[in-house]
Design a protein that fits this description.
single chain; alpha/beta; six-stranded mixed beta sheet; two-stranded antiparallel ribbon; 7 helices; 8 strands; globular
Length: 177
């Protein structure tokens, strides 16, 4: 298995149908989708179970209670079989070719530990632009997170070598990483 998509969700029923359809209809088809339901109290779990019955690529983990994003992500990454961890959130829609383009980039560029992409805020149609060149990242990382967390594809070996998300962080775990 080359790709594991890891998505932790909490009460995402409003978005979940579109999000799952967007992931399952990617141009890159060979993946496992690990979804961790973090104690949702809405219909998220029901939606997930329905999709998991239809698509064997979906692996559903259910937390007994809400343990938070950081611990949930670590739980999913630890069981992931893929060489690449694709991050995705429960309210994000990806372009159909996102995974294919990012995985192909990492396959061709072994020296890169991860890659990401820009984003677009749907409500306001505002572009979310981040830095892509190393000098810009190095200069700006001290003051801000230069990466859109749910746009990242990270080599699993990076987590194994340097550690997973620091579970002391409820928020900003991506920036700390």
């Amino acid at each position: 298995m080359l790709v594991s998509i890891v998505m932790a969700i909490y009460n995402c029923e409003r978005f979940l149908e579109n999000v799952l359809n967007g992931i399952l209809n990617q141009t890159y088809k060979e993946f496992e989708l690990i979804v961790i339901d973090d104690g949702s109290t809405d219909k998220s779990l029901k939606i997930l179970k329905t999709h998991a019955k239809k698509d064997k690529r979906i692996k559903l983990l259910i937390n007994r209670g809400n343990i938070g994003l950081t611990k949930s992500l670590n739980k999913g990454i630890r069981i992931a079989k893929g060489k690449f961890i694709v991050r995705h959130d429960g309210d994000d829609i990806s372009r159909k070719d996102r995974i294919e383009k990012q995985v192909n980039f990492l396959l061709k560029n072994e020296e890169y530990a991860f890659c990401g992409c820009n984003g677009l805020e749907k409500k306001t149609n505002r572009k979310i632009l981040k830095y892509f060149e190393y000098p810009d990242i190095k200069r700006n990382l001290i003051g801000e997170n230069c990466f859109i967390h749910p746009s990242m594809v990270i080599r699993k070996s990076i987590f194994q070598k340097y550690g997973y998300y620091d579970e002391n962080y409820l928020y900003g775990q991506d920036y700390e990483l």
